[in-house]
Amino acid sequence: MIKLNGIRDKLWEVKQLAYKITDECIACGACEAECPVDAISAGDDKYIIDPDTCIECGACANVCPVDAPQPE
After folding, report:
1. Cα 59–56–70 angle (5° rounding)?
2. Which residue, among 70, 67, 72, 71, has the nearest Cα to 30 in the 3D structure?
3. What's the whole-model pTM score?
4. Half-sphere exposure of 16 (CA within 13 A, CB side)
5. Is 42 helix (H, G, I), strand (E, B) or coil?
6. What is the tens place of the pLDDT at every residue in 21-71?
7. Total domains, the chain
8. Do the beta carbons of residue 13 and residue 56 sit within 8 Å?
9. Is residue 6 in a domain?
C-alpha cells in the first residue's frame, strides 16, 4: 500500500500561494479588518501580509478598493 498523506501535504505546500499587497495600497485598513487569520498588519507606507500566516482565502482582495492584494 502506498502512503499518500506525505505526498498530498507536499503538493498542497507547493500549490498554496500567499497574497501580497502591491504598491497600489492606499493604507485604508479594509483588508486588515477582513483577514480571518490576522495575517495583515500596517507597514510603513502600506499594509503587509505575512506569507506564512496567509491562507489564500481572498477576503482581503474582496474588500480592497484599489485591488492591492494579489496572489503572489
Report:
1. 75
2. 67
3. 0.76
4. 14
5. strand
6. 999 999 999 999 999 999 999 999 999 999 999 999 999 999 999 999 999
7. 1
8. no
9. no
Dihedral angle computed from the Cα positions of residues 55, 57, 60 and 62, in that order, rounded to the nearest 10 degrees: 170
Can you give the residue range of the structural domain that contains 38? 17-71
What whole-number distance in Å separates Cα of residue 2 and Cα of residue 60? 39
- CATH at residue 25: 3.30.70.20
The cell numbers describing 71, all together, are 496572489
Residue 43 lies in a domain: yes
Query: d(Cα 59, Cα 53) in Å, to the nearest integer?
Result: 14
Residue 12 lies in a domain: no
